[in-house]
């Protein structure tokens, strides 16, 4: 099997560990920037093209500051994510709120920041109007139902909780137009971690069709089409990344025919990609604590599913490199485990690796999206630090590790003294 490349050497990591003990996440700034530029370049034909980083993938203000400098916006879906955008200094159309089951206070903060609001349901039009007032610009999320096959993680669109039906969205534009909303957008997202490039071209086609229909039936001219996220990454060494040039060329062809051809240009294209932006450029670095041999062979790590949930949650594959043993034969079979009292707390099951020992350093690949972010504190486990590997090789801590005091921060031990039992 092909080995995945690392942006650092064993010596470098050993040096980092002297001041930043394992486990930690480390992000590769250079690769994130290059990837961001490639993404924007691929769609440079589309005037006004913008990618809004789905911040849930890696909600760190340092990463957001880097991406913002590269020209990215931010896609939020909670009050904390909006607040993060605010604290990074983002305002107005740099921010999209694509939420669901949204509370009024989220709409309020989005409105205060001048963010683009992307509604998830027809009932939210009246809700937003009542609690916050309708802004000049509104987008709505389309659920194409049985028009489109979903993929494994999101499931069939008809079963998904997201978005307006076809009928509802047409009605939505009529209502918003009657209420003097001035600028309109449309959004859909029906896949997650999808590697088939044609999938995104088909999604654009569905949206373009709807844009034509909305124009005919309501007279509304839609100004931006948000293709959502869902661009997959090659977790397995033999997989290939989505070819964005191919996706872009396919969409451009449809744009010429359907949008330009029907007098509906200009239409700005937007994405809310998360995984594909930082996923491959973040690594979980963890040391072997114990080797255990029972009915199977276990490598017990100092990281656990708190640091990376995807293998436990989805059975997802994450490639593992044992530092310094890249060229050794894969002679041993291990379950690579954490210390949580849950048997699914495993980074890999029956993984062939070189023979490993206590204190060996493992690097778990593709942990840069939905990695640190997804962790919880179950079993009193604490979340690890995040480090940034800068282009000049410097290491910047961008989030400290949690302490036991953080874990207790929501408890009142002073009050406990007066609590008689
Ligand atoms: C999760 C999510 C995204 C990003 O998905 P990725 O798979 O990380 O690209 C974008 N938009 C919405 C509404 C989401 O929920």
Strands, helices and their partners?
Blueprint: H1 10-19, E1 24-28, H2 29-42, E2 50-54, H3 61-69, E3 73-76, H4 79-87, E4 95-98, H5 104-113, E5 116-119, H6 123-131, E6 137-141, H7 166-178, E7 183-187, H8 197-218, E8 222-226, H9 244-260, E9 268-271, H10 275-278, E10 282-293, E11 297-301, H11 310-314, E12 320-322, E13 332-337, E14 346-353, E15 361-364, E16 385-389, E17 395-399, H12 404-408, H13 413-417
Parallel strand pairs: 1-16, 2-3, 2-9, 3-4, 4-5, 5-6, 6-7, 7-8, 8-9, 11-13
Antiparallel strand pairs: 1-10, 10-11, 10-15, 12-15, 13-14, 16-17
Helix pairs in contact: 4-5, 7-8, 8-9
Residues 54, 56-57, 75, 98, 189, 192, 228-231, 272-276, 369 line the site of pyridoxal-5'-phosphate.
Question: In a nutshell, what does this entry contain?
Answer:
The protein is α/β, with parallel strands linked by helices. The chain is 31% helix and 21% strand. One of its GO terms (biological process) is lysine biosynthetic process via diaminopimelate.
Mind explaining what this structure looks like?
- The protein is of the alpha/beta class and 421 residues long.
- The chain folds into two domains: 30-278, TIM Barrel (Alpha-Beta Barrel), CATH 3.20.20; 279-407, Lyase, Ornithine Decarboxylase, Chain A, domain 1 (Beta Barrel), CATH 2.40.37.
- The protein contains 13 helices and 17 strands.
- Helix 5 (104-113) links the parallel strand 4 (95-98) and strand 5.
- It is globular and about 70 Å long.
- The termini are far apart.
- Bound molecules: pyridoxal-5'-phosphate.
- Pyridoxal-5'-phosphate (PLP) is lined by residues 54, 56-57, 75, 98, 189, 192, 228-231, 272-276, 369.
């Amino acid at each position: 099997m092909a080995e995945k490349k690392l942006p650092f050497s064993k010596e470098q990591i050993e040096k980092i560990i002297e001041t930043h003990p394992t486990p930690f996440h480390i992000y590769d700034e250079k690769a994130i920037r290059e990837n961001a530029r490639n993404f924007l370049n691929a769609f440079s034909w589309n005037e006004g093209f913008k990618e809004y980083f789905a911040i849930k993938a890696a909600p760190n203000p340092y990463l957001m500051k880097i991406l913002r400098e590269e020209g990215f916006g931010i896609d939020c879906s909670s009050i904390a994510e909006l607040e993060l955008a605010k604290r990074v200094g983002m305002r107005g159309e740099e921010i999209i709120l694509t939420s669901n089951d949204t509370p009024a206070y989220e709409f309020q903060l989005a409105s205060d920041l001048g963010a683009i609001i992307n509604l998830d349901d027809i009932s939210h039009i009246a809700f937003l109007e009542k609690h916050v007032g309708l802004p000049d610009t509104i987008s709505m999320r389309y659920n194409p139902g049985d028009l489109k096959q979903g993929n494994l993680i999101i499931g069939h669109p008809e079963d998904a909780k997201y978005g307006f039906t076809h009928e509802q969205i047409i009605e939505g534009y009529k209502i918003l137009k009657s209420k003097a909303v001035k600028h309109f957008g449309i959004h859909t997202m029906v896949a997650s971690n999808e590697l088939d490039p044609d999938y995104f071209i088909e999604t654009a086609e569905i949206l373009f069709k709807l844009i034509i229909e909305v124009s005919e039936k309501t007279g509304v001219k839609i100004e931006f089409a948000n293709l959502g996220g869902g661009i997959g990454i090659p977790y397995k060494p033999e997989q290939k990344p989505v070819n964005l040039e191919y996706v872009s060329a396919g969409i451009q062809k449809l744009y010429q025919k359907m949008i330009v051809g029907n007098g509906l240009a200009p239409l700005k294209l937007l994405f809310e990609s998360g995984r594909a932006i930082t996923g491959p450029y973040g690594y979980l670095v963890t040391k072997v604590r114990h080797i255990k041999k029972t009915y199977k062979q276990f490598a017990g790590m100092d990281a656990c599913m708190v640091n990376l949930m995807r293998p436990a949650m989805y059975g997802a594959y994450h490639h593992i490199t044992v530092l310094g043993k890249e060229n050794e034969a894969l002679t041993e079979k291990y379950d690579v485990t954490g210390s949580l009292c849950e048997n699914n707390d495993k980074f890999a099951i029956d993984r062939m690796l070189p023979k490993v020992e206590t204190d060996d350093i493992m690097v778990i690949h593709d942990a840069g999206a939905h990695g640190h972010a997804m962790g919880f504190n179950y079993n009193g486990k604490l979340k690890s630090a995040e480090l940034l590997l800068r282009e000049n090789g410097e290491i910047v801590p961008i989030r400290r590790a949690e302490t036991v005091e953080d874990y207790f921060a929501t408890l009142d031990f002073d009050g406990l003294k007066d609590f008689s039992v």
